[in-house]
């Protein structure tokens, strides 16, 4: 199984294109979330990532940064393993106390 990858983008964004090109080259399936017109989601992204730019990329729910950081992970030889890791399983539903 491979990682769950989410890429938050806007519609004119050369860095987004660059990041997606690398993911495509690596054969990764990912979700693209367009936040061009979604101020609430952009605010949430800035809070969660501490960054105000797009793209913002999450691998298995963990923020790995933008395009530059993604390419740095690739240069460091760390990206393939991150992309191969399965997402953490959801916890078993707990029985409710009666
Ligand atoms: N170092 C960042 C740069 C990203 C960047 O500058 N993105 C532009 C769009 S391509 C951006 O978000 N500019 C600010 C804005 O649109 O509010 C990266 O590699 O992801």
Give the SSE map.
Layout: E1 5-9, H1 14-25, E2 31-34, H2 39-49, E3 56-59, E4 62-65, H3 67-75, H4 79-84
Parallel strand pairs: 1-2
Antiparallel strand pairs: 1-3, 3-4
Can you walk through the features of this model?
The chain is an alpha+beta fold and 98 residues long. The chain has one domain: Glutaredoxin (3-Layer(aba) Sandwich). Helices cover 39% and strands 17% of the residues. It is built from 4 helices and 4 strands; from the N terminus they run βαβαββαα. Strands 2-1-3-4 form a 4-stranded mixed sheet. β1, α1 and β2 form a beta-alpha-beta unit. Glutathione binds next to α1 and α3.
Summarize the structure.
The chain is an alpha+beta fold and 98 residues long. Helices cover 39% and strands 17% of the residues.
Bound molecules: glutathione
How many DSSP-defined strands? 4
SS element count, helices = 4
SSE topology string: EHEHEEHH
Descriptive keywords:
about 100 residues; alpha+beta; Glutaredoxin; four-stranded mixed β-sheet; 4 strands; globular; binds glutathione
